[in-house]
From TrEMBL:
GO terms for molecular function: ATP binding; serine-tRNA ligase activity. Keywords: Aminoacyl-tRNA synthetase, ATP-binding, Coiled coil, Cytoplasm, Ligase, Nucleotide-binding, Protein biosynthesis. It comes from Candidatus Woesebacteria bacterium RIFCSPLOWO2_01_FULL_44_14. The keyword Translocase does not apply. This is Serine--tRNA ligase. GO terms for cellular component: cytoplasm. Residues 154-395 form the Aminoacyl-transfer RNA synthetases class-II family profile domain. Gene3D superfamilies: Bira Bifunctional Protein, Domain 2, Serine-tRNA synthetase, tRNA binding domain. It is an enzyme of class 6 (ligase).
């Protein structure tokens, strides 16, 4: 959330940032009105509490009873006003960073740079869903029979390929000081709310267990971020970096008709996620650091890619800046998202009350996240490394873990 003092003093700036994210700026006026009301009530309640204490000391029972009666009416009103104010304040998004382009939607995102030339073949390349099926490593049809659409079985060399990607990520991130974590994949709704993903319809893309007040995570950042909620970290321990290894779950609400073939947009997938807690002055530097790691991982796989910088209208509620790394898919003749990295500045830290103490002062940490690998790079490898005979070469960097140089058909 934003600091209410900042909202009071910069209401027009907050309105513009909210509008730039394609949200209704009227929420800012609502927050300020609710803030004024709850502060008025707070003054009245505090004055009455002071009177009550005065009458208790002077043993003026009659006046004490009158004051108590007034408090019994006003305190519930104050509580309700505080709740309404907090709920409204949480609807205001994090403001886009100053270097983020103003834009309506993904069509206005910026291409920052392109690495590598698009892969070309002297034959018609197959799509990843065809290759996965032909090689016997991705089974969508049987998964649909068992679980429904947007699920898949990953089998044989497909599993080895994913484990090899994980090993590459672990080896790379461990050298950079990231601590491996296998987090819970079910978290409390309050924890998810603290991360800023429930507002403005965000819950629609989540699998929610109302009976247990739990939510399945869509990325391990959602369970790693709240790890330190309510804590004051030591500045000497920062940056604090984690790599979360988990299965992720998404309803893919709003994706009807998109990517219905194959396993590009699915309800369940595995991912290794980077997450950092840093000093406020180190936030931007850490964001570039994460982006650099993501680029190095794709470069190691020798997959052509583009770095895309999101415009304001394509940022989620908590993000101040976000980059996507889009890999080349020959069968479609276009780049598609493989990984991403975001900074939420101190937006999530304020909601979760995570601070760090250094040189006699306490500040909110900056929190950042970035994907090392999900299962999508498997699809990019299949497409970019396919051969005319239907086999797929294994990227050199993965061969030591795969134990082979080529993936061929395996009966199942």
């Amino acid at each position: 959330m934003l600091d209410i003092n900042f909202v009071r003093e910069n209401s027009e700036k907050v309105k513009k940032g909210t509008s730039d994210k394609q949200l209704d700026p009227k929420i800012v006026d609502e927050v300020l009105a609710l803030d004024e009301k709850r502060r008025e009530l707070l003054v009245k309640v505090e004055n009455l509490r002071a009177e009550r204490n005065k009458y208790a000391k002077s043993k003026d029972i009659a006046q004490g009873k009158k004051t108590k009666s007034k408090l019994q009416k006003l305190e519930p009103q104050l509580k309700k006003a505080e709740e309404k104010f907090q709920e409204a304040l949480w609807q205001i998004p994090n403001l886009p960073a100053s270097d983020v382009k103003e834009g309506k939607d993904e069509s206005e995102n910026e291409v920052v740079r392109t690495h590598g030339e698009p892969t070309k073949f002297d034959f018609k390349p197959k799509a990843h869903w065809e290759l996965g099926q032909d090689l016997g490593i991705i089974d969508v049809e049987r998964a649909a029979k068992v679980s429904g659409t947007r699920f898949f079985y990953l089998k044989g060399d497909g599993v080895l390929l994913e484990l090899a990607l994980e090993q590459l990520a672990l080896e790379t991130l461990f050298k950079e000081g990231f601590v491996p974590v296998i987090p819970p994949v079910l978290i409390k709704k309050e924890s998810m709310a603290g991360m800023g993903y429930l507002e403005h319809g965000g819950e629609e893309d989540m699998f929610v267990l109302d009976k247990d007040n739990l939510v399945l995570v869509g990325t391990s950042e959602q369970s790693i971020g709240p790890m330190h909620m309510g804590e004051i970290l030591s500045g000497k321990d920062l940056p604090l970096r984690y790599m979360g290894i988990s299965t992720c779950f998404r309803r893919e609400a709003g994706s009807y008709g998109k990517d219905t073939k194959g396993s590009f947009r699915v309800h369940q997938f595995n991912k290794i996620e980077m997450f950092s807690f840093v000093r406020l002055e180190d936030g931007d530097k850490e964001h570039e650091f994460m982006l650099d790691i993501e680029e190095k991982l794709l470069q190691a796989l020798e997959i052509p890619y583009q770095v895309i910088k999101m415009c304001s209208g394509d940022l989620g509620l908590p993000a101040a800046r976000k980059y996507d790394l889009n890999g080349w898919f020959p069968s479609e003749g276009k780049y598609r998202e493989l990984t991403s990295t975001s900074t939420t500045t101190d937006f999530q830290a304020r909601r979760l009350n995570i601070k760090y103490q250094e040189k006699g002062r306490a500040d909110f940490v900056h929190m950042l996240n970035g994907t090392a690998f999900s299962q999508r790079p498997i699809l990019a490898i299949l497409e970019n490394y396919q051969q005319k005979d239907g086999s797929v070469k294994v990227p050199k960097v993965l061969q030591k873990w795969m134990g082979k140089e080529k993936i061929t058909y395996s009966a199942s």
